[in-house]
Amino acid sequence: MSQDNVVALRPNDRVRLNAEPIATICRNLGASTAQHVVARALGEISQSVAGLTAQVKAHDLAEMPRPLRRLQLMAESLGLITLGLIAADLTLCISLQDVTAFSAVWARLVRVADDAFADHHSLLGATLG
Predict the structure, then answer these.
(1) Which of the two ends of the chain, N or C, has the fewest CB atoms closer than 10 A to its terminal CB?
(2) Is residue 79 part of a domain?
(3) Could you tell me the pTM of the whole model?
(4) Distance of alpha carbon 53 from alpha carbon 47, whole angstroms
C-alpha cells in the first residue's frame, strides 16, 4: 500500500452547548460570582477528566462508570451537552466491554473537553455579555 492511499483524518466535533444553565447561575448570583462559580465548576470537570485519564492509562476501566456519571452530571449542569453525552457513551462502551469503541469515544471526550476548557471564556462571555 502506498502512502497515496493514506488519508489523514481530522476529527471536527460539533460541540453542542446550552447557555441557559450558566445564564440561570448569572441571574441568581450576579455576573462576578457566577464567573467564579463557573470557573470552579470547569476546574472540577478538568480534574475529573484528569482522574479518568489516569484510570485509562492504568487500564482500570472497571472503576470508571461512577466518575463518568459524575462528569456527565457536572457537564450537563453547565450546559456542556456534548461532553455529557460522550461521558454516557463511554459508560455504555464499558458495560458492553467494547474496548475498540471505548478507545474511539475516549479520544472524542478528550478532544471535546480540551475545546471546552480552551473556550470557557467565550462560554461565559455569551451569557454574561
Answers:
(1) N
(2) yes
(3) 0.83
(4) 10
Contact status, residue 112 vs residue 15, Cβ threshold 8 Å: yes
Q: Sign of the CA dihedral 7, 15, 58, 50?
A: positive
Cell numbers linked to 107: 479520544
Residue 11 lies in a domain: no
Inter-CA distances, 66 with 24, 45, 52, 109, 112, Å: 27, 14, 10, 16, 20
CB 121 within 8 A of CB 39: no
Are 106 and 91 spatial neighbours (Cβ–Cβ below 8 Å)?
A: no
Which pLDDT tens digit goes with each residue over 105-126?
999 999 999 888 776 655 555 5
The pLDDT tens digits for 55-65 are 999 999 999 99
What ranges in the chain are assigned the alpha helix state H? 20-29, 31-57, 65-77, 81-95, 99-118, 120-128
In a domain, 124, yes or no: yes
| Residue 6 φ/ψ, nearest 5 degrees | -90, 130
